[in-house]
Amino acid sequence: ILMVDEKGKNMKCLTFFLMLPETVKNRSKKSSKKGNSSSGSNSKLPPVCYEIITLKTKKKKKMAADIFPRKKPANTNATAVQQYHQQNLNNNNTIPAPNWQGLYPTIRERNAVMFNNDLMADVHFVVGPPGGTQRLPGHKYVLAVGSSVFHAMFYGELAEDKDEIRIPDVEPAAFLAMLKYIYCDEIDLAADTVLATLYAAKKYIVPHLARACVNFLETSLSAKNACVLLSQSCLFEEPDLTQRCWEVIDAQAELALKSEGFCDIDFQTLESILRRETLNAKEIVVFEAALNWAEVECQRQELLATIENKRKVLGKALYLIRIPAMALDDFANGAAQSGILTLNETNDIFLWYTAAKKPELQFVSKPRKGLVPQRCHRFQSCAYRSNQWRYRGRCDSIQFAVDKRVFIAGFGLYGSSCGSAEYSAKIELKRQGVILGQNLSKYFSDGSSNTFPVWFEYPVQIEPDTFYTASVILDGNELSYFGQEGMTEVQCGKVTVQFQCSSDSTNGTGVQGGQIPELIFYA
Fold first, then answer.
1. C-alpha–C-alpha distance, residues 174 and 210, integer Å
2. What is one GO biological process annotated to this record (predicted)?
3. pLDDT averaged over the chain?
4. Would 497 be classed as within a structural domain?
5. How would DSSP label each residue in 368-431?
6. Is the sign of the CA dihedral 398, 403, 407, 410 positive or negative?
7. Euclidean distance between CA atoms 287 and 290, whole angstroms
8. Which residues contact 481 (CB under 8 A, 6 or more apart)?
9. Both 401 and 514 in a single domain?
10. Does 206 share its domain with 305?
11. Domain extent for 125
12. Which of 84, 182, 441, 508 is the most buried (most CB within 10 A)?
């Protein structure tokens, strides 16, 4: 077949051997008579016919996309999507426009439209205590997919066909947070509702949301809320959170005991704290905290906050306070005059302080062990010269970061290189310019190259993988030792500490040399 265009020019030349049925039949008979000698010549058969076909030049073939061009989406669709997202958050239960499903490309987004929406709702929840309830819509299938409790409630063997379910023990905001996770796969937690959300997640067995609540609590954990969270973590059976709470309470015991949250704990948690061997606090602080708790407990039990009632609500927990381990001044000016002790108990404790033959006491007399501070030393050697290290109100500063959460209790500083001397030290700890802790104190050096501790009023919590700035302004007439051969990274027990220079340093201290040779911390 010779394919030419209208002008006679060759387009393609294709050769086909067309065998008509009759021709094939006749030739096959002739070839069988001639035998094998003619088989070679018969193998190539001439074409039966030729035909010249004139093809008209065609335009480029169009695709379906060219024939039916895609229309540009109108701006109204994008606006509608945003509006529906806002509806989910605000629960205005506006009925979506026709074909609203087409606005959302994924099943997750289409499910999210149903969150807190009456559209197609086949169950309603009345959530909250009497007088503070909220009626919330739900969809049984979605809820059953997200929670085994809901599955049993709606599709289990003992399922009840109720259109309305009352849940008086869960706060509406917490229940909504759980529904948002089930419908939208989004976790939206707030400090004032995270405990209630954790309770809801535990009740309806939504483990990933519960884990997120625990992580949120761990990151927001401080001395102010550690005692309350300790109580709740025991209730929810969260051992990791319980351990974190104890770390904070041990290291920052005095801050935790003086917090308002301490008075909100239950009696069992109070006993566990008073028994704590590693509590890093003066015993007089423990005693005063227990009295504050007793006063609030009287109010909870609708009792007058008298001495008798305070002692009554404390019960045997009073004897967990190690009153004989107090300093004598603290006992004489504090516990002995509080009225909470009987006359015999007061006399026996005074005798225990002073008499050679000590009376038997119901109180624990052995002091608490507290926490042993660790020291991170960043210099490999120290030296002194006739013209340095000199102090005239200038700042020595260094930045550091840790890989685990620790509590900085103070700094170790070098002392005089010219005999014994006294220094006034203003120490400071900052994060991104915000002061986290500071203290002004004096220390006496004996002329040796040892370091001398200077403490903060309370240990400061340090989060991992963030740089903090340690600063000190020393005031003293004598020159001091200074560190040399500084290290950028120091392994101290299970904690790795990294150091870098600080722009706040105006007296020469840096990574390689200078002051602040030690960080004193609890881990």
1. 12
2. dendrite morphogenesis
3. 84
4. yes
5. P-----EEEE-EEEEE-BTTBS--SS-EEEEEEEESS-EEEEEEEEE-BSSSSEEEEEEEEEEE
6. negative
7. 5
8. 382, 383, 384, 389, 414, 415, 416, 417, 449
9. yes
10. no
11. 81-90+100-220
12. 182
Rounded-to-integer distance, Cα 514 and Cα 442, Å = 20
Task: Provide the Cα torsion 138, 141, 145, 151; round to 10°.
Answer: 90
Q: What is the pLDDT of residue 467?
A: 96
Instruction: Compute the distance between CA of residue 70 and CA of residue 103 in angstroms, rounded to an integer.
Output: 17
For residues 235-247, give the mean pLDDT.
92
Question: Token digits for 238?
Answer: 């969260």
The pLDDT value given to residue 160: 81
How far apart, in Å, are the Cα atoms of 116 and each of 86, 515, 520? Answer: 12, 60, 52
Strand 2-4 to 52-54 pairing: parallel
Asked if omega into 246 is within 30° of 0 (cis), the reply is no
The type of residue at 176 is: L
CATH number of 174's domain: 3.30.710.10
In a domain, 124, yes or no: yes
- Count structural domains, the chain: 3
Question: How many alpha carbons fall within 13 Å on the CB side of residue 118?
Answer: 7
Closest CA to 428 of 508, 505, 338, 326: 505
Residues 6+ apart with CB under 8 A from 116: 88, 91, 93, 136, 137, 176, 179, 180, 183
CA–CA distance, 338 with 348 (Å, rounded to integer): 16
Per-residue DSSP letter, 187? -
Strand partners, 164: 124
Look up residue 323 and give its DSSP letter: G
Alpha helices per DSSP H over 51-193: 64-67, 75-90, 107-113, 140-146, 148-155, 172-184
Give the Cα separation of 304 and 313 in Å (integer): 11
Please answer whether residues 518 and 451 qualify as being in contact, where contact means their C-beta atoms are separated by less than 8 angstroms: yes
Q: What whole-number distance in Å separates Cα of residue 12 and Cα of residue 344?
A: 123
What pLDDT shows up at residue 126? 95
Report pLDDT digits (tens) over 334-357. Answer: 999 999 999 999 999 999 999 999
Characterise 485 by phi-psi region: left (phi > 0), alpha (psi -120 to 50), beta (else).
left
DSSP, collapsed to helix, strand or coil, labels residue 62 as coil
Alpha-helical (H) ranges within 46-74 are: 64-67
Query: Which CATH number covers residue 496?
Result: 2.60.120.820
Q: Is 57 helix (H, G, I), strand (E, B) or coil?
A: coil
**Distance separating alpha carbons of residues 216 and 232, to the nearest angstrom:** 14
For residues 188 and 174, what is the distance between their CA atoms, to the nearest angstrom?
10
pLDDT in tens, 178-215: 999 999 999 999 988 999 999 999 999 999 999 999 99
Based on the fold, state whether residues 406 and 491 are members of the same structural domain: yes
Q: Going by C-beta distance under 8 Å and a sequence separation of 6 or more, which residues neighbour residue 521?
A: 373, 374, 376, 406, 407, 408, 409, 459, 462, 495
Q: Which residue spans within 149-273 are E strands per DSSP?
A: 164-167
